[in-house]
Amino acid sequence: MAVEHPDCAYCAEGDIVAKFGYKVCELPASKVYIFKEQSHPGRCIVAAKWHVAELIDLTPEQRSAYFEDVAKVSQAIHDVYHPDKVNYGAYGDTAGHMHMHLVPKYKGEFEWGGTFEMDPNRKKLTTDEECEAVASKLREAILG
């Protein structure tokens, strides 16, 4: 995919996305990152390969392929982390690039029954080694 928007973290990758994410792999319709804020172990971002802001901006074929990728990553999270539920968040108010947060949740934990919180002070991966330890487990489960 050519860089469509050089200021977009998901298009440009590199230093911009490295502030909050670490690349796990690419799938047919998406790029998968672990979110460095890991208060929910296994939390991922699945970013569309196309720079669009809304689901309705994708063609039906792109949308179908994107959701196949989301389902594949969700299955990997279930296989590796065994959550009770994976929450899916699609925001993009500031990013302007279609992406979903996949957030594993567990009954009885700090926010069961509500939306997930983003708190980088709770548990943040700070080194490439820490990131790769999480990414490699998910990568293996995603790509087989």
Describe the structure.
It is a single chain. The protein has about 140 residues and is α+β, with helices and mostly antiparallel strands. It has a single domain, classed as HIT family, subunit A (2-Layer Sandwich). The chain is built from four helices and five strands; from the N terminus they run ααβββαββα. α3 packs across α4. The longest helix is centred in the middle third of the chain and has 22 residues. The mean pLDDT is about 90.
- State the shape: globular
User: Structural class from helices and strands?
Assistant: alpha+beta
Count of distinct strands: 5
Helicity range: 25-40%
Mean pLDDT over the residues: 89
Question: Unreliable runs, pLDDT <50, ≥5 residues?
Answer: none
Tell me about the biggest sheet?
Answer: 5 strands, antiparallel
Write the layout of secondary structure elements.
Layout: H1 9-12, H2 14-18, E1 21-27, E2 30-35, E3 44-48, H3 60-81, E4 85-89, E5 99-105, H4 128-143
Antiparallel strand pairs: 1-2, 2-3, 3-5, 4-5
Helix pairs in contact: 3-4
Attribute tags:
5 strands, five-stranded antiparallel β-sheet, HIT family, subunit A, 144 residues
Task: Kindly summarize this structure in a few lines.
By secondary structure, the protein is of the alpha+beta class. 33% of the residues lie in helices and 21% in strands.
